[in-house]
Amino acid sequence: MSAIVMDTAALRATESLPAERFAAVRREMVLRHCKWDPQVGDVRTLADFALVMRRAEWRRMARLAEALAAETVAAEAELLKRPELWQELGVPRLLSRVLTGARNAGAAAGGTGRVMRFDFHPRGAAEAGWWVSEVNSDVPGGFAEASAYARLMGEALGLEPAGDPGEAVARMICQRARGGFVGLLCAAGYMEDRQVVTYLAQRVRACGCSAEQVGLRDLRWRDGEARLRDGRALGVLVRFYQAEWLAQLPRRYRWQEAILGGPTVVMNPAPAALTENKAFPLVWDRLRTPMETWRRMLPETRSLSDAPWRAGEWVLKERYSNNGDSVLAVGEGDLRMWRRAERELRRRPGAWVAQRRCAVHTVKTPLEPMRPCIGVYVVDGRAAGIYGRLSRGWVVDFAATDVAVLLEDDGDGG
Amino acid sequence: MVADQVFEAWAPTGGAWSDWVKPVLFAAMAREGDARMEAASRVGALVADRAAAGEAAAAVAGDAATAVVLDLGAVAAVEMGLALAQCGARPVPLFNGAASGGEARRTLAGQGTFGVCLDVGPAMMALWRGAEVLWGLRLPLDAPPVFLLDADRRTGRWTAAPGVFDNRWISLPTDFPSGIVLRERGIRRTVVVSVDGRMANDLAHTLMRWQEAGVEIWAGTLGRSPERTTVRSPRWYGWVWHGVLASMGFRRNWLGGFGGRLSESGGGMG
What we know:
A: 414 residues; alpha+beta; 8-stranded mixed sheet; 4-stranded parallel sheet
């Protein structure tokens, strides 16, 4: 499929910043805003240029993202009451038990505070508008890049970012904490996760709440309330730890409570695990919840067995995949990787879904034409900012380049 | 000296290898505050023997076509890296363990660090002190690299237990330049210096890739001159995130990515 270079005013790249100026931005990010992976192999993960979008286009995207968020939350509420669909989604058995607990407790999908990120891609060919490839519903990251990096690049270029999602999330957390202590949880050993929670902890503290990173074994749970070993009660537990990962830990870690919460509010709530699942679109036809916006924006998605994916033009996604680590673009990658892929796909075909690769615009950048992924955050139902990434291939993974997305007035640019 | 200058000393703007410097400990220095770091970095004697580091460095110092990987205790790696800098090489810190917070304060108070798997405080102080040395040397921006690793990274010094801040880490091929980039920049040989002469499993994944790209691998210890060696394919070689299995009890998914049995998260100050 051909990709069309986007040269409209809807989304364009700026020139690169002068080297010294960009070095100052990069240094500020790594020293003060927790960007600890600015280099992955031979790839610089911070672009020294920005993407620019007109304000009217951002307003349109924001409305779309808010509509998608509303549909997602409504779908979660329905899915929570319909366990017969969980198996179709491939929800792990132990996680199903927790979701049953959430259903019995009457957990509201959005009631505990909610942040999601929707991945938009500019449509190519003769179509206008955007595709939305997925929602990062359970543990979206990228707050430092979408907030501090966008602000710093905006200051350097004289343009404004679309928002400050780090601030929006921090305020949401502090509201729910009601003066209580905030714990932030992530998996050990993953620096890319550690940097996200460290950044969020900084932002939460700046909003006036006490916040610390915590481990599961630091928590003492009683009737849904978590306390630290020193007795301090947690008002909020920020769970930057995928629900399906937690569900593979031994029960003695009390991970079930870390998903369910109670008097200690857990963000994101348990039902988020249902829509984080890449098979979520496969059950839409069986939902009563109208999914009109989603249906307009999502590329065709099928189960692996229903998709002629070997003919190309498809992206294969593991049901629970993170950061592009288990996403394959048919036709990309080397032979050795595909041999492994074939084995895996034969062994566990049900663990994968296929999404049609649709025509997308690429953007001329100072590096080369690249595919943009515009991640729009929705915090408690309101669009809050953009996490921009650029990739050379079809998959936006850990080696994608982060790019600030800035706004210009509707009469400017071109 | 302020944190920005310390970082600039180790990762100078325009430096050929600056992009690969891991920033997490420098960020921790910035959080500690410049005055406190400056004071703490003057407390106590060096853990490593700088003279011995100089002798050892002389044994492995190469030419413009030689890269060095120092897989030693963090402070020893910094000291030997600085000794190699005296010979014209550019030390590139790849320490990637998060600080638990308060390292400088505890150093000033004469307290040890407890409740952390890996005490990164001494490495922070060594890097802060070393910045002055590097400023004085005025190394060329394209000096050959000396990559600094902490040999305790995978196991830590303290056992992970409830309440212990788990900041262990592993070295991944994506932490380094590729073999292709090394060769493009004139590197033909890599000397690995480790505590016991054995190659850590996580590092072997990187070295195997370099070897496949045509970079010779030599191995030695602090007391032994390096000899040419052939890196054998380590377990799970070729998987994207091999290390999750190797060191932390994580189960690799089929692409080597996330998923499976996870080690427990540690706590601590963010």
